[in-house]
Structures are given as C-alpha cells and as structure tokens.
TrEMBL record:
Residues spanning the signal sequence: 1-29
GO BP term, pick one: transmembrane transport
Protein name: TRAP transporter substrate-binding protein DctP
Keyword tRNA-binding: no
Pfam families named in the record: DctP
Annotated source species: Halomonas binhaiensis
Length: 344
C-alpha cells in the first residue's frame, strides 16, 4: 500500500512540475504586435500572406519564445499613427509610402514611374542596391533606431483603374480625378493632365462609388481586396510602379532580444519574404483574369503607348522630386544606376 501510494505521490509531483514548467514557459513567451493594411485573406491580400508566414516561422524558429499577434485591416490606426506606434513601442508594422515618407521622403525615388522592367530588376534593386542601403541608414537615424527589415511585395506592379473611359495612353487622363495614396502619385497624375487627391485606403471604395474620384492606381490584388471592380470598369496594365510596402521593427525591440532570437526573427523575415514573392508572382495573371470575369475591361497598352507614358511621366516625376521634395540629384542617379537605367 505504501509503495503504491508513494508512486502516486511521485507521479503527481512530476506531473505538477511538468505542468508548472509548461505554464512558466508560456508565461515567459514574448508577444509582438504586427500591424498592416488589408483583410486577413490569403487569396486577396499578399501582405497578409507575408504576415501570416512570418508569424508561423518566428514562433517555430524560436520554439515559442516569440509570438506574433497579427492586427490586419489597419486595426491599430492609419499609416502615420501606426508608424508612431512602432517607433515608440516594441512592435512591428508593415507601412506603405504614406507611412514612410514623412520620415524618409527619399523613399519616393524608388516610386519613380517605369523605373523597373520586371520583378527581378525590382528585387535586385532593394536586395543589393546602394540607394536602398542609404534609405535604410537614413531611416534608422531618424526613427530612434527602428529598422526597415524587409521590402514586402503587395501584388505585382501598379495598374490604373477608372470608371469613365478606357485609358490606353497618357492623353486619356485629361480631366479625370484620381485617388492618390500620397503626393508622389498626385505629381504623376498631374503630369498626365488629371488631378489627384490623397484619400486613405479605407475610404477608397466609397470615394469611387460616390464620384469623389474617377479612378485610382494599385496592383490587381488591391483592386480585388477592395472590391473595386464593383465601382470601376476599366483596368489599364501600365506596370507603373513596383508595388511594395515595408516591414518596420522597433529598435528597442531588436536590442532586447537574445542574439539567438534576433537572428531567428531576421531569418524568418527573409524566408517569409521569399515565400511571398513566389506566391505573388504566380498569382498575377490569375488576378487579372478574375477581374476580367468580374466585368472589368482590361487594357494592355502597346509598346508605343508605354513609351508615351514613360516620356511624359518620368521627367515630370523627377522634376517634382528635385524641385518640390528637394531630392539630391546624386541620390536619384544612384537609384537609376541600381535599376539599370543610367541617368545623367
């Protein structure tokens, strides 16, 4: 009897120790908030695909020491509010140009229209280019040590949509009103003879539906994500700009992590980004076909039309960069060199 009772006591004690250890481990797990735009829908939101993969990889690589809590749909605020949060608190944020530009307006150089020929050129530009290294350094210095950890693709190259008429070339913009994400897009629209008004992403659908704006530009993925095919008839595949956002990490957060967990986070970021790139590129044609099925008329500009877009849009944009934004010409030259387009 004594032997059986002793064994039961020992077994119970061992179980309590195991449960206590497990609870202690869970209690010590560090939760990191990750905020971003768009719905938590992998079929419609490439940024969510990246975020979800990052969450899984970080938790796997740190064996649960770090947990990522996702906040999609701008739940923690619009762009500038979320940027203020990530700079001041231990968190992560995926920011668009609207969130980044107030800190590093130099980022507008990477949005020069028709700068990249294809995905490979754009990816090399950000992965290896001198211009982008300078932007990362400037951001770190101006944001209390926060870091740009990754450039996140959000669905291919930007396309124009509108509800008034087919747009084949720049002359077709005359008199139209467009939603702009930021001042750089306003400058591009004005170069084509249209007007641009900054409108937050969360208000775009209603602005298009009510006629506040006739059109907008985004990759096909965002047209699907925002159900914009319901309020837009024409889709012009002009491959205007490489569509990207930026993963930001709070500086104190990175410093607080152990060397092992910090490296695990960085490895997870790189792996999640590569996975998102593959999935994104594979779905470009599928997304365009889907929008066509929803009733949108797809316009594919000719080579001559594309050259007209470039000839009108790029010089006007560069003028805006230098005269309105005070951008250093040498930095612009570096960016064009990194993109394989030498500029005098």
């Amino acid at each position: 009897m004594y032997s059986i009772l002793s064994r039961r006591v020992l077994m119970g004690a061992s179980l309590a120790v195991c449960l206590g250890t497990s609870a202690l481990s869970q209690a010590w797990a560090q939760t990191i908030n990750l905020s971003y735009n768009g719905a938590p829908d992998p079929d419609k939101n490439a940024v969510h695909v990246f975020a979800d993969n990052l969450k899984k990889l970080v938790e796997e690589k740190t064996q649960g020491d770090l947990e990522i809590k996702l906040y999609p749909n701008s739940m923690l605020g619009e762009e500038q509010e979320r940027m203020e949060q990530v700079i001041s608190s231990p968190s992560l944020n995926i920011a668009s140009f609207a969130g980044m530009a107030p800190i590093v307006p130099e980022i507008y150089v990477s949005a020069t229209p028709f700068l990249f020929e294809d995905f490979a050129t754009a990816r090399s530009f950000f992965d290896e280019g001198q211009y982008w290294q300078q932007v990362q350094d400037d951001f770190r210095e101006r944001s209390q040590g926060s870091e740009i950890l990754s450039v996140v693709e959000e669905g291919g190259f930007l396309a124009f949509t509108n509800n008034k008429r087919p747009i084949h070339g720049p002359d077709d913009f005359d008199g139209l009103r467009f939603r702009a994400m930021d001042p750089s897009q306003v400058a591009l629209y004005e170069a084509f003879g249209a007007s641009g008004t900054p409108i937050p992403w969360t208000e775009v659908y209603m602005a298009l539906k009510t006629g506040v704006a006739d059109g907008q530009m985004n990759p096909p993925m965002y047209v699907i994500l925002g159900s914009l095919s319901e309020v837009q008839k024409y889709l012009t595949l002009a491959n205007i700009q490489y569509s990207d956002q930026f993963l930001i990490a709070n500086g104190q957060l990175l410093e607080s992590l152990s060397d092992e967990n910090r490296q695990a986070l960085l490895d997870a970021v790189e792996q999640a980004n590569q996975m998102a790139r593959v999935e994104n590129e594979n779905k470009v044609d599928e997304r365009i076909a889907y929008l066509q099925e929803q009733g949108m008329e797809v316009i594919r500009p000719s080579a001559e039309d594309m050259e007209a877009f470039r000839a009108k849009g790029q010089p006007a944009y560069l003028k805006w960069l230098e005269e309105e934004q005070g951008m250093d010409h040498e930095l612009i030259k570096t960016a064009f060199k990194d993109a394989g387009q030498p500029l005098e």
